[in-house]
Specification:
Belongs to the polysaccharide synthase family. InterPro entries: NAD(P)-bd_dom_sf, Polysac_CapD-like, Polysaccharide_Synthase-Rel, SAM-dependent_MTases_sf. Keywords: Membrane, Transmembrane, Transmembrane helix. This is NDP-sugar epimerase, includes UDP-GlcNAc-inverting 4,6-dehydratase FlaA1 and capsular polysaccharide biosynthesis protein EpsC. This protein is α/β, with parallel strands linked by helices and about 600 residues long. It folds into three domains: about 5-130, no CATH class; about 140-255, Rossmann fold (3-Layer(aba) Sandwich); about 270-445 and about 480-505 and about 545-600, Rossmann fold (3-Layer(aba) Sandwich), CATH 3.40.50. Helices cover about 45% and strands about 15% of the residues. The strands form six sheets. It has a nine-stranded mixed β-sheet, sandwiched between helices. A five-stranded mixed β-sheet has the order 2-1-5-6-7, with helices on both faces. Strands 3-4 form a two-stranded antiparallel ribbon. β3 (about 180-185) and β4 (about 185) form a beta hairpin. α1 crosses α4 (about 105-130), α2 runs antiparallel to α3 (about 70-95) and α11 (about 290-300) crosses α18 (about 480-495). It starts with a helix and ends in an 11-residue tail after the last helix.
């Protein structure tokens, strides 16, 4: 129906309702007085009430409401329009009827007016909700959480019955006071523990977790119960994403492994970070990578004067540059994308000299363990030579703080990647002993969702129909989310005195096979449908990782989830010897030389020219 036709229909309906209401009210108020129907005042009042009603209906936009979604707000508008119409009619009747009023009739008219007008509007919503059939293709949905968010989801889905994919059936909530209660005509059927039984009893095909303030341990418990049922599970975004404006409360998202395995958010020392970052120039190498790009996102919140995005990959730097410009379009921070290779010493010195950063976050590195086993020379050039170039540039041009992003694989390394990152730490520790710049390293384990992590690989394997490959059933790793790791790297930089190796608390190590099973479940499959295949340990891999050597352990956290290791003696001459003679080594010799340096066998690296 067009707006004009709809408007005409509503005006005709309201004219009939209002004109009839005042005569019915007169009959109710004065049942034994027939003369009242012939009084001029009543006739004038009826016409006036109709006109005043239309006037206030336009003022309060009663003819512009979508009544299929009517709620308390629309009811308030009706009460205001009707009340003002009655008041205006009362004033008119007072003068027309020689200062006399049909008080009872006006009061009854006011009540009937609200009932008839409100009823005529809300009847359509009731009819739509109760009698219009639900699309047979909709999935019967259980909502976890009967709070404000759950109510919002239920209302939205019920209002969009013909367009929504989901049809709400019931709630579950651990609040005992809500048991056996109803919300939008949907029953609260039990608690989280009852989810499997409720799914069977109601034929549930979909579950929505509608508690955005859940902590990770609580979410893990709910997801575990949901996974028993083999139905798809979605959730509202987390409260921090809602507050940051990344997503809206109406957005449902799939439950990711990061949601289940992530930890509670660390409260940062905002004042200290602000003192170090706000109004200063910061530089991030590897700014297009998983960790580097997230460090950039986190830094932008603290309003640096300038942020220099340094990276070798053109597209990755373009991507993070465009993202930051779009999100922080109103920010006064100058964003400078720079294409440069950390192996290019002259270029790195030019960049640092030109921009004079106060802080450098060095995240550029080769991190893929098996690939670096086949390409050890590239690992040394990027991870060791690149770190030396950036660190010496920082020293030369008076950078205040240099933060190296390191890895748990630098502890007792069995692979090229870990060994080169340990050498990078040695370079930084040596610089700390002879420079006014504060040099520190921050060491942590795997980050969920990074380009080189197992999560993207598992997802691709699941999308391809499986199998999901895991190297060994007992292999464990530490995991942390990218935002948490990046925040702690920034926080660690503010704690720097020079020469420390900060270690991030990664929690308990997780079995890779458990990670794979979780992802299979969250993707809506069983292990029978999506089998796990054990492929064997790859070159350079360890069964487990460590964050600190026993000789480095320093008890007590210097900040929440941040520990500092004891500094070991560093002999940089052997590292420099390796760099100078790098091209003289073949692959096997270079691997032996790397391990020799790491484990203190200094004679191993001496090679005759």
């Amino acid at each position: 129906m067009t707006y004009r036709n709809r408007l005409a229909l509503l005006i005709m309906l309201d004219t009939l309702i209002v004109g009839t209401a005042i005569f019915i009210a007169a009959w109710i108020a004065y049942p034994y007085t027939s003369s009242v129907y012939h009084a001029d005042a009543i006739m004038v009042s009826a016409v006036a009430l109709v006109l005043f009603h239309h006037l206030f209906a336009f003022i309060y936009k009663l003819y512009n409401k979508v009544w299929a979604y009517a709620s308390v707000g629309e009811l308030v508008a009706i009460v205001k329009a009707v009340t003002l119409s009655i008041l205006a009619t009362t004033v008119l009747q007072f003068f027309v009827n020689d200062f006399d009023l049909y008080k009872r009739a006006l009061i009854v008219t006011w009540m009937l007016h609200i009932i008839f007008i409100g009823g005529s509007r809300f009847i359509w919503r009731i009819f739509r909700d109760r009698f219009i059939s639900v699309n047979s293709g909709q999935k019967r949905t259980l909502i976890v959480g009967a709070g404000a968010a759950g109510a919002m989801i239920a209302r939205q889905l019920k209002n969009e019955q013909n367009n929504a994919e989901l049809s709400p059936v019931a709630f579950v909530d651990d609040d005992l006071s809500k048991q056996k209660m109803q919300l939008y005509n949907l029953p609260v059927e039990g608690t989280v523990q009852d989810i499997p039984e409720i799914v069977d009893r109601f034929g549930i095909e979909h579950i929505v977790i509608a508690i955005p303030s859940l902590k990770n341990g609580e979410l893990n418990e709910i997801v575990s119960k949901c996974n028993v049922t083999n139905v798809k599970v979605q959730m509202l975004p987390k409260i921090e994403d809602l507050m940051s404006g990344k997503v809206s409360v109406n957005t449902l998202k799939n439950v990711e492994v990061e949601d289940v395995l992530g930890r509670d958010t660390v409260e940062l020392d905002i004042n200290t970070i602000t003192e170090n970052v706000t109004g200063n120039t910061v530089m991030v190498t590897g700014a297009g990578g998983s960790i580097g790009s997230e460090i950039c996102r986190q830094l932008m919140k603290f309003l640096p004067k300038k942020i220099v995005l340094v990276g070798h990959g053109e597209f990755s730097i373009y991507t993070i540059d465009m993202e930051l410009r779009n999100i922080y379009s109103d920010s006064e921070t100058e964003i400078v994308p720079v294409i440069g290779d950390v192996q290019d010493r002259k270029r790195i010195f030019e960049i640092v000299e030109e921009h004079s950063p106060a802080i450098i976050y060095h995240a550029a590195a080769h991190k893929h363990v098996p690939l670096m086993e086949y390409n050890p020379h590239e690992a040394v050039k990027n991870n060791v030579v690149g770190t030396r170039n950036v660190s010496e540039a920082a020293d030369t041009f008076g950078v205040n703080t240099f933060v190296l992003v390191s890895t748990d694989k630098a502890v007792k390394p069995t692979n090229v990647m870990g060994a080169t990152k340990r050498l990078a730490e040695m370079v930084v520790q040596d610089m700390a002993q002879r420079s006014n710049t504060k040099f520190v390293a921050v060491r942590f384990g795997n980050v969920l969702g990074s380009r080189g992590s197992v999560i993207p690989l598992f997802k691709k394997q699941i999308e391809a129909g499986g199998p999901v490959t895991v190297t060994h059933p007992d292999m464990t790793r530490y995991f942390m989310t990218i935002p948490e790791a990046s925040r702690l790297v920034i926080q660690a930089g503010t704690l720097a005195q020079g020469g420390e190796i900060f270690v991030l608390d990664m929690g308990e190590p997780i079995k890779i096979v458990d990670l794979a099973r979780n992802l299979i479940k969250l993707s809506g499959y069983t292990e029978e449908e999506m089998p796990i295949k054990f492929s064997g340990i790859r070159p350079g891999e360890k069964m487990y990782e460590e964050l600190l050597d026993e000789k480095e352990v320093h008890p007590g956290a210097v900040y929440e989830k941040i520990y500092v290791g004891r500094t070991k003696e560093v002999h940089l001459d052997v590292v420099l010897d390796l760099i100078y003679k790098l091209q003289e080594y073949n692959t096997v010799e270079l691997k032996d030389a790397l391990m020799g340096i790491v484990y203190g066998e200094r004679d191993v690296v001496v090679k005759e020219s």
